[in-house]
Specification:
Length: 273
């Protein structure tokens, strides 16, 4: 049942991407309503799959690559839907939906059966660290999506492609503010995720830091976003520069998964010795 729910969510993500993309092209609200409804349905179905997987495993389903990617995609959509309630940004949803589809599709490439939780991971630190780290990455993923929309909108304005359809896009000021707020929320979560991971490492393996690839990338990511926020607050970075570096930061997030889970699997990639 769990794989079926995830497949249904996968199809719904794809259809939502199509509907929201259509909304940006036509002057009618119906595709927006359809797209957001499909995205919400996919989110609920996907959440059901994660819950079923967790119940079957007897722990938070996040220790395999399949589970990690699935949870990441689900949280990205959840963060967007929460923001959509306030800001009404279907243009950002048109980026979030295909991203969720791609990440969920990638999860299927690593599909495996339920694994028993190793003894040294049976700790209250597991849900705390996972919640902070994954939620932080999901908020930063939203900043990435907002940055893509910002750069697209800016380019359209520079090329003087201003028409009725451009009204579907939020203002550059709104996108810039949302990007900053996402970074300001995601960075503390990222920081707490690193701190709780270090404390958990001390509890489980006897040391705070092991210099694994995933840990190194997390540190690089922390310095990158710390510098980006300082540049925004102190030097007044805005607009294109902020959006460009935000996109680079998300590329580091993806690289940390590839190197930490796929190429050099260690404690974060299923080798828990």
């Amino acid at each position: 049942m769990e794989p079926l729910l995830l497949k249904v969510a996968l199809v719904a993500y794809l259809l939502a991407a199509g509907a929201l993309g259509r909304y940006l092209l036509v002057l009618h609200p119906a595709p927006r309503v359809l797209g957001l409804s499909l995205l919400l349905a996919a989110f609920l179905g996907h959440g059901g799959a994660i819950v079923m997987r967790s119940i079957a495993a007897g722990h938070v389903a996040v220790i395999t690559d399949y589970e990690a990617l699935s949870l990441f995609a689900w949280l990205i959509v959840g963060v967007y839907l929460a923001v959509e309630l306030r800001y009404r940004l279907p243009a950002v949803g048109a980026v979030v939906a295909p991203l969720a589809f791609a990440v969920t599709l990638g999860a299927f490439a690593f599909y495996s059966g339920v694994r028993e939780l190793p003894p040294n991971l049976r700790s209250a630190w597991l849900p705390v660290h996972v919640a902070l780290a994954f939620l932080g990455n999901a908020v930063l993923a939203l900043a990435f999506c907002v940055s893509l929309v910002y750069l697209f909108h800016e380019r359209q304005l520079k090329e003087k492609r201003v028409g009725r359809r451009m009204r579907r896009l939020p203002s550059l000021e709104t996108l810039d503010q949302l990007n900053y707020r996402a970074l300001a929320c995601g960075f503390p979560l990222l920081t707490l995720g690193i701190v709780t991971g270090a404390l958990w490492g001390k509890y489980s393996w006897g040391h705070f830091w092991s210099w694994e690839e995933r840990e190194v990338f997390s540190l690089i990511l922390w310095f990158l976003y710390a510098g980006l926020l300082q540049a925004r607050i102190v030097a007044g970075w805005r607009g294109r520069r902020l959006a460009t570096v935000t996109i680079i930061g998300f590329a580091v997030v993806l690289a940390s998964f590839v190197f930490g889970h796929v190429l050099f699997p260690g404690k974060h990639g299923g080798t828990f010795d």
